[in-house]
């Protein structure tokens, strides 16, 4: 394939409650770090793509495309903000990927950022509820944890999935995040800790939930023509995106997410790969139940068997399908618009050999980033070598 | 601080038929019933509907108790996905004691205050209570 696309640079800020940094501070820090990591000059960047969900709610700032092109000193190149709730980051990366594949640009900076702690916690929750159906979910007080709790209970009651099994997911992600210097939480936790944690929306406790986080992540993606001379490319083999009905109550099933299934189906079909070809997986563990649903809906285990699958260690670094190998949203944190880009960055780090938990034999990785409860899903397959 | 200032009077006024009286709409060509109302039928793609009054009876398909509430709400409160006897599902607060709630239990619609916005506007609508 002549028009391969690669990730050639990675930049990231620390994720956490960063009181002394603004949205623009975070974005500039991550963007410049990615340019430096790629070893290119800022003048070589043809276009900027921004992933951000809720700048308007969280910091009263829209028009981030202009603001961040301006603050990065990148004007007058084209700049585009992409929004699909928690999938905003991957959506931005996918738009850049498509534009490069189409031959319009050679180099794009993809930058995800969210500043969430300038508002109080209850207001941040309200902002995140913008990912659901305002008129029919938000007005009833249905929070994001609430929506995932409804999915978790349905799965538990239909398939016998237990809270202990869900807890195994958070335990694994905290274990993996321990070595990650960018992670918000670097402490290991036990199943008992998860079960005894403060309840947020029954049956999900606080340790089943990803946190509210400030942070930014950036990648530079480039055409094969440009990337072949770069020091450390990781190759994007395929990109896929799908939509589902927005409101949970309008879905046909409470135990599967159609957009996640569709993204998995498309990625495997377009690459002719199978589940067993994937060496590592980054999925959207905004809540423990969604990592479990993603493992099932992508076909890594049978529908209904996710609880046993994760409890048996399949997702561990040395397991059948190492998942969220650098800590996931749970441990690293979830600055909403940045998470999809952080996922791509973490898979690229493993493939090019400078991850925090290294996997020397890994050749193919997969990401799945989800907006809301799957109203949007975006996934990618990355390879250590260019796709043949 | 942002409260529900975006719940303006026209914003909820135009939904009152659905939110106050649980009026669904039914596709004139294939008969599928929708609540909340839809503009295009997901089954046949047609866009002609007629109003249909729902009974307000249903059962709990899944539920949770919200213990970390967003601005404008006071926790704890229960929310369920309710499967209505006519077919559609909706999301609703479930009133009454939290420890009596179970999946499968019958519920019925009641008219309640939902939230108050920062201008003092009180938004009313449906909640559900256990039918027994």
Overview of the structural elements:
The complex is a heterodimer of chains A (388) and B (132). Chain A has helices at 23-38, 55-59, 64-71, 88-101, 121-128, 144-159, 163-177, 191-196, 224-227, 258-271, 288-297, 306-311, 328-332, 336-352, and strands at 5-12, 47-51, 79-82, 107-114, 199-201, 204-205, 215-223, 234-243, 280-283, 364-371, 376-383. With 388 residues, chain A is α/β, with parallel strands linked by helices. Chain A has 2 domains: 5-120 and 213-227, Peroxisomal Thiolase, Chain A, domain 1 (3-Layer(aba) Sandwich); 141-209 and 236-383, Thiolase/Chalcone synthase (Peroxisomal Thiolase, Chain A, domain 1, 3-Layer(aba) Sandwich). In chain A, a hairpin with a 2-residue loop joins strand 5 (199-201) and strand 6 (204-205). In chain A, helix 4 crosses helix 14 (336-352) and helix 7 (163-177) packs across helix 11. Chain A is globular and about 55 Å long. In chain B, strand 7 and strand 8 (122-130) form a beta hairpin. The mean pLDDT of chain B is 92. Chain B has one domain (9-130). With 132 residues, chain B is mostly beta strands. The radius of gyration of chain B is 16 Å and the shape is globular. The chains are: A alpha/beta (388), B mainly beta (132). The interface between A and B is large, with 38 and 35 residues.
Largest sheet of chain B: 5 strands, mixed, barrel
- Placed side by side, the strands forming the largest sheet of chain B appear as 4-5-6-8-7
Helix fraction of chain B, binned, reads: under 10%
Number of helices of chain A: 14
Q: Uncertain regions of chain B: pLDDT < 50 for 5+ in a row?
A: none
Summarize the structure.
The complex is a heterodimer of chains A (388) and B (132). Chain A is α/β, with parallel strands linked by helices and 388 residues long.
Q: What does the secondary structure layout of this molecule look like, with pairings?
A:
The complex is a heterodimer of chains A (388) and B (132).
Chain A: E1 5-12, H1 23-38, E2 47-51, H2 55-59, H3 64-71, E3 79-82, H4 88-101, E4 107-114, H5 121-128, H6 144-159, H7 163-177, H8 191-196, E5 199-201, E6 204-205, E7 215-223, H9 224-227, E8 234-243, H10 258-271, E9 280-283, H11 288-297, H12 306-311, H13 328-332, H14 336-352, E10 364-371, E11 376-383
Parallel strand pairs in A: 2-3, 2-4, 9-10
Antiparallel strand pairs in A: 1-7, 1-8, 4-7, 5-6, 8-11, 10-11
Helix pairs in contact in A: 4-14, 7-11
Chain B: H1 9-13, H2 16-21, E1 23-27, E2 33-34, E3 49-53, E4 57-66, E5 77-84, E6 89-95, E7 106-116, E8 122-130
Parallel strand pairs in B: 6-8
Antiparallel strand pairs in B: 1-2, 1-3, 4-5, 4-7, 5-6, 7-8
């Amino acid at each position: 394939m002549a028009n391969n696309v690669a990730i050639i640079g990675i930049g990231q800020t620390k994720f956490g409650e960063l009181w002394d940094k603004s949205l623009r501070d975070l974005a500039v820090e991550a963007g410049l770090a990615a340019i430096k990591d790629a070893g290119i000059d800022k003048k070589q960047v043809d276009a900027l793509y921004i992933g951000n969900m809720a700048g308007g709610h969280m910091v009263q700032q829209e028009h981030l495309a202009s603001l961040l092109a301006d603050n990065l000193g990148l004007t007058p190149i084209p700049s585009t903000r992409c929004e699909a709730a928690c999938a905003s980051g991957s959506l931005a990366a996918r738009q850049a990927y498509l534009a490069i594949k189409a031959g319009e640009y050679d180099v794009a900076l993809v930058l995800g950022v969210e500043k969430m702690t300038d508002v109080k916690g209850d207001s941040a929750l309200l902002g995140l509820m913008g990912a659901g159906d305002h008129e029919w979910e938000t007005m009833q007080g249905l929070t994001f944890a609430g929506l995932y709790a409804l999915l978790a209970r349905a799965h538990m009651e239909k398939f016998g999935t237990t809270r202990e099994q869900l807890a195994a997911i958070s335990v694994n992600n905290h274990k993996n995040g321990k070595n990650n210097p960018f992670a918000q939480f670097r402490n290991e936790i036990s199943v008992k800790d998860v079960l005894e944690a403060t309840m947020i929306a029954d049956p999900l406790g606080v340790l089943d939930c990803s946190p509210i986080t400030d942070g930014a992540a950036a990648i530079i993606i480039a055409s094969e023509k440009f990337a072949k001379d770069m020091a450390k490319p990781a190759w994007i083999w395929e990109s896929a995106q799908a939509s589902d009905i927005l409101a949970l109550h309008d879905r046909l099933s409470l135990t599967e997410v159609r957009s996640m299934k569709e993204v998995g189906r498309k990625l495997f079909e377009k690459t002719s790969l199978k589940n067993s070809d994937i060496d590592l997986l980054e999925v959207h563990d905004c809540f423990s139940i969604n990592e479990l649903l993603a493992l099932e809906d992508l076909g890594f285990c049978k529908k209904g068997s996710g609880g046993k699958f994760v409890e048996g260690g399949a997702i561990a670094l040395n397991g059948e399908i190492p998942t969220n190998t650098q800590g996931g949203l749970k441990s690293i944190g979830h600055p909403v618009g940045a998470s999809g880009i952080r996922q791509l960055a973490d898979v690229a780090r493993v493939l090019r050999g400078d991850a925090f938990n290294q996997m020397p034999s890994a050749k193919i990785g997969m990401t799945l980033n989800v907006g809301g409860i799957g109203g949007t899903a975006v996934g990618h397959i990355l390879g250590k070598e260019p796709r043949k | 601080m942002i409260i529900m200032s975006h719940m303006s009077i026209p914003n909820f006024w135009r939904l009152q038929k659905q939110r106050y009286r649980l009026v669904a709409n039914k596709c004139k060509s294939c008969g599928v019933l929708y609540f909340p109302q839809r503009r295009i039928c997901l089954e046949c793609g047609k866009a002609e509907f007629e109003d249909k009054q729902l009974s307000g009876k249903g059962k709990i398909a899944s539920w949770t108790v919200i213990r970390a509430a967003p601005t404008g709400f006071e926790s704890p409160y229960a929310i369920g996905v309710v499967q209505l006897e006519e077919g559609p599902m909706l999301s609703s607060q479930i009133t009454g004691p939290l420890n009596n709630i179970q999946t499968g239990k019958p519920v019925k619609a009641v008219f309640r205050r939902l939230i108050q916005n920062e201008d003092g506007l009180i938004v009313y609508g449906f909640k559900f209570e256990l039918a027994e």
